[in-house]
Task: inverse folding
């Protein structure tokens, strides 16, 4: 197995009394584009929150560079690992530039509120995500696809080698989904380790270099999409009979749900 | 993806820089405005004074205007500046903390706590001096802040729970204040002046007593501007950025307590300034608290002093209390402003 800077060892994850996952062990291979898939409410976001220290595990530990993540100083952690949560709120009346600039938080301090370096990185992040032309627009006036790219630009401005994205493509139409996934793939190609929660299995299979399938808080399969995505696995995880064929574009697995009723002529 | 981008990076960077210079210039202009209004506050009143006599009245004990300018209008102006800082900053921090655009220093019940403590002091303990009010006001504000944090969920506090707990506390405490004033008419008389909000009682001793609290509140508020910025995007995002929402909430509530306690003690619960000023300032600065808070701290005193001066002029030779002027003038203006903003945006 390849090296993994980030891993969860025997995690028990819970909200108050409600246990979501038990004895869950996952490793995020370095330099991978890891995609986490699984049915609704199986604990994908919960796992991502634990990996980014937003949620403290009841038991077990998340390790980053061999050290318990709980022992990392907050700012140093935030310069290593960026998180785009599923439910982020854009402050009312904020412009694109200002939102992206908030990603600079861990690089600033009480006495270092803003620097040329911040300015440069914010501009670069906007250009890298294709939102440079929107710099002065209000975020709440943007389309869903533009807004998602702005959020990714914010995470980019954090300048972390590891990037965790919770459902970056949800609520986007198909063209914008592909656009955002291409952007994620670019970021991965530039050398970042990218972890994303995705809903669409076919997108996951096409873009991931490493796939993690969760069911009920348990890890049911992990590995290359070609090995993981089988008809049996999809049926056992999602409870949906299907066929898996080769994606005619990329050769990656393509999940085709079994027809339960005849096509409408 | 980068092929989508037609604008190369330098123009983007320049746009980012240009906006910053504009904000600095705006803050300087706001400070100048505060200077001008402060001088006006020394010169204008029920008894008008030529601007030339103001300097003498301020510095020369032999000047005929000395009593008026140095002993009365100077502390009144200083109190207006301090109260303005408290109300503007308190309102802005409260709005950020609760993520609630209609939050003002009244919303979290901290003003109500201060008022309840002062009523108790007047009615039960027989305290009569404004100086005595100060300590009760802080004690009341502090107790409510602790209660608020406990009821609002403690370590698990969320903006919505804080706002709910605050409204409940506020309602209960104001019922208490009203009950005491109904039952004790003597207290009512002494309270009436104070509950409307007035700067007229400006007394150098009060100014000196509240100033350190205002200073500390100001520092704490400016200190949490950055983490509050991060929390505006949700607690998860804030933690992902390396901020500490729990600690930030505690510090922000402490700042609000100091600021609201000081303002309530010094001039009674002046409403509307704390709600209105952050909204006006947001048009100039956007929602970045690192700019919004300093602007509020400068512009709220400007507005409060203008209201106070207006109150001295319109009812000559008598005067209107500043708390009334802020409502009468601020209310319609604010409605107009909100309406216009909504139409622009939609
Ligand atoms: N803050 C929370 N408090 C309590 N329960 C939660 C919380 N967040 C999520 N849950 C519950 O945990 C389970 C897993 O949620 P989540 O990790 O968000 O699932 P998903 O795989 O859809 O991202 C769900 O049953 C959800 O209801
Ligand atoms: Mg989720």
Result:
């Amino acid at each position: 197995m390849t090296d993994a800077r980030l891993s969860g060892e025997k995690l028990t994850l819970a909200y108050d009394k409600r246990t979501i996952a038990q004895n869950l062990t996952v490793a995020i291979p370095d330099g991978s584009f890891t995609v986490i898939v699984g049915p609704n409410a199986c604990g994908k976001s919960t796992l991502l929150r634990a990996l980014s220290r937003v949620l403290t595990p009841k038991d077990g530990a998340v390790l980053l560079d061999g050290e318990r993540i709980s022992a990392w100083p907050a700012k140093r952690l935030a310069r290593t690992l960026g998180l785009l949560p599923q439910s982020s709120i854009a402050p009312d009346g904020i412009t694109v530039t200002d939102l992206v600039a908030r990603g600079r938080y861990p690089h600033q301090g009480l006495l270092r509120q803003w620097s040329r370096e911040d300015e440069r990185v914010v501009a670069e992040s906007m250009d890298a995500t294709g939102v440079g032309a929107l710099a002065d627009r209000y975020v709440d006036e943007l389309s869903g696809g533009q807004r998602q790219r702005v959020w990714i630009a914010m995470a980019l401005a954090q300048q972390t080698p590891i990037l965790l994205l919770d459902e970056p493509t949800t609520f986007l139409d198909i063209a914008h989904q592909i656009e955002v996934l291409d952007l994620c793939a670019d970021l991965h190609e530039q050398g970042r380790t990218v972890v994303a929660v995705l809903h669409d299995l076919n997108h996951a299979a096409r873009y991931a270099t490493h796939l993690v399938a969760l069911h009920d808080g348990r890890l049911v399969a992990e590995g290359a999409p070609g090995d993981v995505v089988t008809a049996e696995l999809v049926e056992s995880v999602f409870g949906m009979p299907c066929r898996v064929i080769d994606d005619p574009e990329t050769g990656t697995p393509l999940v085709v749900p079994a027809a339960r009723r005849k096509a409408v002529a | 993806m980068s092929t989508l981008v037609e604008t190369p990076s330098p123009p983007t960077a320049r746009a980012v820089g240009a906006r910053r210079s504009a904000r600095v210039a705006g803050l300087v202009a706001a400070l100048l405005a505060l200077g001008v209004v402060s001088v006006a506050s020394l010169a204008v009143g029920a008894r008008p004074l030529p601007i030339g006599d103001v300097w003498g009245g301020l510095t020369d004990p032999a000047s005929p205007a000395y009593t008026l300018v140095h002993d009365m209008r100077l502390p009144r102006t200083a109190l207006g500046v301090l109260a303005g800082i408290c109300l503007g900053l308190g309102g802005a921090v409260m709005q950020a903390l609760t993520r609630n655009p209609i939050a003002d220093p009244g919303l979290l019940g901290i003003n109500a706590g201060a008022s309840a403590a002062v009523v108790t002091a007047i009615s039960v303990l027989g305290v009569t001096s404004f100086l005595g009010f100060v300590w009760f006001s802080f004690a009341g504000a502090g107790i409510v802040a602790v209660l608020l944090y406990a009821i609002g969920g403690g370590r698990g506090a969320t903006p919505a729970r804080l706002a709910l707990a605050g409204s409940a506390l506020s309602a209960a405490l104001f019922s208490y204040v009203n009950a005491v004033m109904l039952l004790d008419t003597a207290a009512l008389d002494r309270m009436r002046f104070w509950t409307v909000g007035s700067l007229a009682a400006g007394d150098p001793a009060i100014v000196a007593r509240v100033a350190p609290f205002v200073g500390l509140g100001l520092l704490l508020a400016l200190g949490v501007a950055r983490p509050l910025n991060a929390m505006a995007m949700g607690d998860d995002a804030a933690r992902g950025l390396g901020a500490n929402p729990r600690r930030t909430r505690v510090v922000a509530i402490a700042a609000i307590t100091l600021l609201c306690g000081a303002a309530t003690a010094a001039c009674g619960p002046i409403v509307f300034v704390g709600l209105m000023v952050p909204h006006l300032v947001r048009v100039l600065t956007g929602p970045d608290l690192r700019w919004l808070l300093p602007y509020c701290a400068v512009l709220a005193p400007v507005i409060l002093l203008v209201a106070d001066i207006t109150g001295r002029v319109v009812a000559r030779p008598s005067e209107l209390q500043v708390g009334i002027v802020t409502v009468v003038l601020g209310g319609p203006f604010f409605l107009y402003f909100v309406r216009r903003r909504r139409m622009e945006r939609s």
User: Anything to note?
Assistant: The mean pLDDT of chain A is 93.
